[in-house]
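Regression check, iron/sulfur cluster case 258:
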Amino acid sequence: MPSDKSAVLTSSPAEKALADHQILDHVYGHLPPEPRRTPMRELISTVLSHRTTHADEELAYDRMLEAFGDWAGVEAAPTADLAHAIRTTRWPDTQAPRIQEILRRIRAETGGPFDLDFLADWPTERGMAWLTDMPGIGLKTASLLLLFNYHKPVLPVDTHVHRVAQRVGFLGAKVSVEKAHSVLLALLPADAETLFNFHKHNYWHGQQICFFLKPNCARCPLKGFCTYYQEHFGPATAEALAATPDKWDPAAWGKLPH
Ligand code: SF4
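Current build output:
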């Protein structure tokens, strides 16, 4: 952890991004890269999750496989029947043909099995291009799958990562979430373990401390070099820095989400 957190206040975006990573790595704890779920589930669940609660997405996923047995059954099902099975999602009539098209492309690539492990052997750029060409699959989903499941050096950027990076000041205020994928990636070491931890920690930070409406700056260990903090409260004082907890306390503040 940098000994003088305020020393990077005027540093370059790359230095700030690295300081953010080092400090949050210490606060939340370093993690080994690991998948959230199997590659097929990651991909298909993402299509189901658009504007849908997690519970309804899971219900749709389970009902789909109960109704048609396996991926071959889902692909071959009448599209209207698939839409009915996933009706707890927001746009079943749009998602059903998308899922079937994704399954068709996977089968065409593997020659049969519904398995994405060929992505492990492909260069990152080829895998990214193949995934983002699928209907309903954007940069964030493709990056999550390639980083979490295949340890490729890419960075998923969601709304939390985007907000923290902009407030701390290593991402421009006008850079979109889509564009931030390449901008932030260029600031960080091209190493899957670092990128995995950067993503997870900044995601948690946006969810737990740097809230959209009222960021909890008093508890934030990034305040010493955060542009938003400086603009709203002035430079962080030695007292404020000393009073900032530098480890997440699950007993006091709750367990971090997966
Ligand atoms: S100091 Fe405040 S605005 Fe800056 S990152 Fe921390 S919580 Fe967010």
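Comparison notes: The first helix runs from residue 13 to 28. The two ends are 24 Å apart (CA to CA). No diff flagged against the previous build.
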